[in-house]
Amino acid sequence: SGGLVVMDENTCMVEVARFFMSFTQRESCGKCVPCREGTKRMLEILERIVEGKGELSDLDELEELANMVQSMALCGLGKSAPLPVISTLKRFHDEYVEHIVDKKCRAKVCTALRQFHINPEFCIGCGKCAKNCPAGAISGKIKHPHVINNDVCIKCGSCKDNCNFDAIYVEA
Question: Where does residue 70 fall: left (phi above 0), alpha (psi -120 to 50 degrees), or beta otherwise?
């Protein structure tokens, strides 16, 4: 079988690695320990990184686990499972560092790393965003620009979806 995956600057390479690791971890038959446990541990680390909870030491551990799984797994799935992680670590190392150190996702894909803001020049203070915010993270007076408290925001995007004036933007 074969396939083609097209990616551009709107693709988060850390999320790509997490996605493929999630798939291979689910598909693992579980017979050999390197694949069963190694892919599970790698997935845990990648999930922590896309949630903004990663540490720089995770990158060394991820690389070590990937090399171990690739060299010790018994089947083709296990031997190829860490390849997306190995290649993204090698070619997109800076994106991993941005996720961990800067808590930013340049592709604005990783939900936990997004921050929503309201541009006061575009906000007319209609309150529609505040009414639709399930976390109550938006405040302001009618006919005055509103603000989003990102400490309370659950990053669902409801505010952006409901703004008729494109006043809400995502920063990641």
Answer: alpha
CA distances from 103 to 18, 56, 121, 147 (A): 17, 12, 27, 21
Fold topology of 114-171? Alpha-Beta Plaits (3.30.70)
CATH class of the domain comprising 13-102? mainly alpha
- Whether 129 contacts 156, CB under 8 Å: no
Say whether 114-171 and 13-102 share the same fold.
Answer: no
pLDDT tens digit string along 77-118? 899 999 999 999 999 999 999 999 999 999 988 989 989 999
Report pTM. 0.80
Q: Nearest CA to 17 among 36, 38, 45, 37?
A: 45
